[in-house]
Design brief:
single chain, 560 residues, alpha/beta, Rossmann fold, Nucleotidyltransferase, domain 5, 5 domains, six-stranded mixed sheet, five-stranded mixed sheet, 19 helices, 31% helix, flat, binds S-adenosyl-L-homocysteine
Length: 560
């Protein structure tokens, strides 16, 4: 039970919101606060006090026993801005409670426990099903106790504060295991179940066959990554139902593809029916791996279903993460989560600096200077192929004039690739300028380092002729100063001198600046490599100092 204590009207209002959200978990303690705190402390596992920390410190100090048994105490200030974990951060669960209360009330959780502040990942946030003594092992991790990691599967994990030996343990396995009171098991998605079925095979028969095969082989159903079968059985109800019940996708392969897979137990029946001598074994083995359960038939007579189980090798993980234009609050929550999911971070040193504080302790950082792009891409892919969880970072969107293409050009299909979009410079600049991208627009990089100038010029000309809004990336550097004037001149052949041009430097960074000018008046000397230049189309206007491209000429007329 969580005891709720408040003194003022504002405190009581926040208290009532909490009580309404958690009716079965909370109890309101009325009356004089000193008395209320003492009663709640004796009766509850946790307290939320809508009082100043000083007041609560004085009230609970005489009541404190030891951290294993004391309740967790959270304070919420009068303004409802902070939820402070005051006492019992781990043992009393006050850190978690502060976060939960913060989320509910829109307050910032304040957690000062050392290990929490440095960000030990929650065992339930790793994206793998977890079983066992989650609370005990999490607490051991947080308290810096020895926790051993047994990751025989080699599944890529974020850095965890673990040792090779310890009283507490984390196992990463698809096997059914006996756990002690101090152990958890994480379930990696390693198992592929190949399934065959005659038309109309009952769902229960298919399910029981698979479930029983896994159990007898000592394998966990939670590690099943997919069910696989032949194309002709894609809609077979019993198979579809089994995949749904496991909560995994049903992947299908053509009969030719399956016929080419070498299997231990081919037979004539499926060859006649669907054109491959094996469905279950071949579909399980088609992407390689170790055959753990050779073909088995269901127990019914006649048997209408077959299955086989394969363990696929662990796959490394490459997240290609856009950091946004600069400001921390334009870094997406997903990007942040991927940075913390990684055990290896690869990127340009100046971008690494931008997010270093978000990385988990133990993250291996491979940073390099400007240039070296191909090498960075290769390093990231190599680390992923070695089974690591890698984050490859780039500013803005990592796929826009950035690392995603060189990395994916290197990457084979034996790693998982996760793309996290970021706010690219053109969008960050547009938001500052007004609405310059309200109609068709393109981005053109003026860097002729990797692209011949003739190609760039042809594209600028095409955009000019098509009357498309253009954002120039890499517009001008010390060694490249004639390209921007040349590009603007091409646009000016098709647009009025008064066409609005937005120049944004360091969008969303501390020294951000923006200027709205025109094709005729733009001084290229004010443009550098920290800048994007957005040139309007023939309909773009300067309206109240904002750059506005109408949604469409006809649409505008209709609105008038
Ligand atoms: N991947 C990046 C672009 C890399 S190319 C993105 O999606 O934004 C580098 C060019 O991007 C720079 O020369 C500049 O033209 C532009 N740029 C990147 N960040 C910027 C910012 N914060 N403000 C203005 N321009 C920026």
């Amino acid at each position: 039970m969580i005891g709720l204590i408040s003194a003022t009207a504002a405190g009581a209002a926040a208290r009532d919101r909490l009580a309404a959200a958690w009716p079965d978990r909370t109890r309101v303690y009325d009356g004089p606060v000193g008395d209320a705190v003492r009663r709640a402390f004796a009766e509850c596992e946790q307290l939320v006090c809508f009082l100043a920390t000083g007041a609560v410190v004085r009230l609970v100090a005489p009541l404190l026993g030891d951290k294993a048994s004391d309740p967790g105490v959270v304070c919420v200030d009068e303004g409802g801005r902070f939820a402070v974990s005051l006492v019992g951060g781990h043992g009393g669960g006050a850190n978690e409670l502060a976060r939960a209360v913060g989320e509910l009330l829109g307050a910032e959780p304040v957690v000062t426990t050392a290990t929490d502040a440095v960000g030990v990942p929650g065992l339930d946030t790793l994206g793998l099903p977890v079983e066992g003594a989650v609370a005990a092992v999490s607490r051991a991790l947080l308290d810096g106790e020895a926790v051993a990691l047994h990751n025989a599967s080699g599944w890529p994990l974020p850095p965890l504060p673990v040792a090779s030996e310890g009283t507490y343990g984390i196992r990463v396995t698809d096997r059914l295991v006996e756990l002690s009171e101090q152990e958890v098991v994480l379930r990696p998605p390693t198992l592929v179940v190949g399934v065959g079925a005659s038309r109309g095979a009952p769902a229960e028969e298919v399910w029981e066959l698979i479930e029983g095969s896994l159990r007898e082989a000592g394998l966990s159903a939670k590690s099943v990554a997919e069910l696989a079968t032949v194309d002709a059985k894609a809609g077979e109800p019993g198979i579809v139902a089994a995949a749904a019940r496991f909560g995994v996708p049903l992947v299908t392969h053509s009969a030719e593809e399956l016929a080419a897979v070498e299997v231990p137990n081919p037979s004539d029946a499926p060859l006649a029916a669907v054109g491959t001598p094996s469905v279950a074994e071949a579909a399980a083995l088609v992407q390689g791996g170790e055959l753990l359960v050779p073909k088995r038939k269901s127990a019914a007579t006649p048997a209408m279903a077959t299955c086989a189980v394969v363990r696929r090798p662990a796959r490394g993980r490459l997240a290609v993460v856009g950091l946004g234009p600069g400001a921390r609050d334009l870094l997406t929550p997903r990007a942040k989560a991927e940075l913390q999911r990684a055990s290896v971070l690869v990127g340009l040193d100046q971008y690494v600096d931008q997010i270093r504080d978000l990385l988990r302790p133990g993250t291996r950082v491979l940073e390099s200077g400007l240039g070296a792009e191909e090498e960075r891409a290769r390093t990231a892919v190599e680390e992923a192929r070695r089974g690591q969880a890698v984050a490859l970072i780039g500013s803005g969107d990592a796929g826009v004039y950035a690392m995603a293409s060189p990395a994916l050009a290197e990457a084979s299909d034996d790693i998982d690739v996760i793309g996290v979009p970021g706010v690219t410079a053109a969008l960050a600049a547009a938001a500052i300028l007004g609405a310059p991208l309200g109609h068709d627009h393109v981005s053109i990089s003026l860097s002729d380092l990797h692209t011949p100038w003739e190609v760039i010029e042809r594209r600028v000309r095409a955009a000019a002729e098509a009357d498309i809004v253009v954002t120039f990336y890499n517009p001008r550097s010390r060694g490249r100063d004639w390209q921007l004037p040349k590009a603007l001149a091409i646009l000016a052949e098709h647009r009025e001198p008064a066409t609005p041009v937005g120049v944004v430097r360091n969008a969303s960074r501390p020294d951000e600046s923006a200027r709205l000018t025109t094709l005729a008046a733009l001084d290229p000397a004010t443009v550098d490599m920290m800048t994007v230049v957005t040139v309007g189309n023939t309909a773009t206007r300067d309206i109240a100092g904002r750059m506005v491209t109408p949604r469409g000429y006809r649409w505008q007329e209709g609105a008038q």
